[in-house]
């Protein structure tokens, strides 16, 4: 379907947070992070806002002109190649420490007593592939009343077309079996094995090679 898409900015922050909150309130992973429905309704928007602020600062948010769907993307560069194994080990330790600090800061800002806010950030960072430049689809949200109309597919394909032209891979983590099926239709394949959240649902890391 033809969908008018623009790049969102700071002025769209409130709209996009509401959109993501509505789209993911009943998502299996959101339900795992915030098991109590009342607490989820109150706190979940803060997590969506934290994710959005990172992407507004470091990536790009594609927004349907009518405000019914959005996609959060980060361009991940190829890793630098250290000169020796010692350097590589040190850099790996430093990167892991930085990721841990970021996860802890997110927990403190969103829901300090909820260790799962920090854990989900650590676990997804831990399975993120390295070594090749790629486009990372962090999140895609469609308003509940507009789901099933092809908006999500249109937003993702908008970037995948560019990936194909430029020979760039793409990566994401599917948070439900339904979304996994959608991404498979778009050319994504399961990367390694699913991530089993402790006492919770699975997430599926998925990779897409550019098409020629």
TrEMBL record:
Residues 84-109 are annotated as: Disordered. The keyword NAD does not apply. One of its GO terms (molecular function) is acyltransferase activity, transferring groups other than amino-acyl groups. PANTHER family: GNAT FAMILY ACETYLTRANSFERASE (PTHR42791), N-ACETYLTRANSFERASE DOMAIN-CONTAINING PROTEIN (PTHR42791:SF1). Residues 88-100 have a biased composition (Acidic residues). This is GNAT family N-acetyltransferase. The keyword Transferase applies. Keywords: Transferase. Residues 78-211 form the N-acetyltransferase domain.
């Amino acid at each position: 379907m033809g969908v008018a898409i623009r790049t969102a900015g700071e002025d769209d922050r409130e709209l996009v947070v509401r959109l993501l909150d509505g789209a993911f309130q009943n998502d299996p992973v959101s339900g795992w992070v915030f098991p109590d429905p009342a607490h989820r309704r109150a706190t979940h928007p803060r997590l969506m806002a934290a994710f959005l602020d990172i992407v507004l600062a470091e990536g790009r948010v594609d927004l349907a002109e009518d405000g019914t769907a959005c996609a959060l993307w980060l361009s991940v560069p190829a890793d630098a190649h250290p000169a020796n194994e010692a350097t590589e080990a040190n850099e790996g330790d430093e990167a892991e420490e930085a990721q841990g600090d970021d996860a802890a800061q997110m927990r403190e800002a969103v829901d300090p007593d909820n260790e799962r806010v920090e854990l989900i950030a650590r676990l997804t960072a831990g399975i993120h592939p390295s070594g090749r430049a790629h486009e990372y689809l962090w999140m895609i949200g469609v308003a509940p009343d507009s789901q099933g109309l092809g908006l999500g597919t249109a937003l993702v394909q908008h970037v995948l077309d560019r990936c194909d032209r430029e020979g760039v891979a793409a990566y994401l983590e599917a948070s439900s079996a339904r979304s996994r099926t959608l991404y498979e239709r778009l050319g994504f394949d399961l990367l390694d094995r699913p991530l089993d959240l402790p006492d919770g649902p699975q997430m599926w890391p998925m990779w897409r090679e550019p098409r020629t």
